[in-house]
């Protein structure tokens, strides 16, 4: 999941691309695993991280 976060934050890849690169054939399953791990969906996680940078 750390690699997924890195790709989302730094490589400007979309969620489908990240899911595929992490070995998930289903984007929705990747999102559910991500949410179980971080407590947020990838989009919500990104929004929260970007808010931190702005402060």
Short description:
It contains 4 helices and no strands. It is mainly α and 55 residues long.
Q: Which fold does the CATH topology refer to?
A: Arc Repressor Mutant, subunit A
Tell me the name of the CATH class. Mainly Alpha
The general outline is globular
Q: Could you tell me the radius of gyration in angstroms? A: 11 Å
Low-confidence stretches: none
Please indicate the count of domains: 1
The CATH architecture designation is Orthogonal Bundle
Protein name: AraC-type DNA-binding domain-containing protein
Keywords: DNA-binding, Membrane, Transcription, Transcription regulation, Transmembrane, Transmembrane helix
GO molecular function: DNA-binding transcription factor activity; sequence-specific DNA binding
InterPro entries: Homeodomain-like_sf (IPR009057), HTH_AraC (IPR018060), Tscrpt_reg_AraC-type_HTH (IPR020449)
Keywords, please?
55 residues, mainly alpha, 0% strand, Arc Repressor Mutant, subunit A, Homeodomain-like_sf
SSE diagram, text form:
Layout: H1 2-10, H2 15-21, H3 27-38, H4 42-54
InterPro entries: Homeodomain-like_sf, HTH_AraC, Tscrpt_reg_AraC-type_HTH
GO molecular function, one term: sequence-specific DNA binding
Domain HTH araC/xylS-type: 1-48
């Amino acid at each position: 999941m750390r690699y997924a976060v890195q790709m989302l934050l730094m490589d400007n890849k979309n969620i489908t691309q990240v899911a595929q690169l992490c070995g998930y054939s289903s984007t929705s399953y990747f999102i559910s695993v991500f949410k179980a791990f971080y407590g947020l969906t990838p989009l919500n996680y990104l929004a929260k991280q970007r808010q931190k940078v702005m402060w």
